[in-house]
Design goal:
Blueprint lengths: L1 E6 L5 E6 L7 E4 L4 E7 L5 E4 L5 E4 L4 E4 L13
Length: 79
């Protein structure tokens, strides 16, 4: 995942994120929390859910890495 940051004259910030993860990808944050990617939010931020299902908007620079397994790839046959 690559991104660039754009600033406007009024102090607004927008992120142009390329190579977005697939929906359901688990992201590891710089503070070691794990969030699940849900989609792109306002201003290019990343819409994610935490372990309790609460939605949060993240800055791209908060992402330290990502797991390869996604919701689509997960083996849910045991459920």
């Amino acid at each position: 995942m690559d991104y660039t940051t754009h600033h406007n004259g009024r102090g607004g910030v927008r992120f142009d994120v390329r190579n977005l993860p697939a929906r359901g990808t688990n992201l590891v944050l710089t503070d070691a929390r794990v969030m699940t990617y849900q989609g792109q939010g306002p201003a290019g931020m990343l819409l994610c859910t935490d372990i309790d299902g609460a939605e949060q908007l993240l800055f791209p620079q908060q992402i330290a890495g990502m797991y390869a397994q996604t919701l689509d790839d997960a083996d849910l046959s045991h459920l």
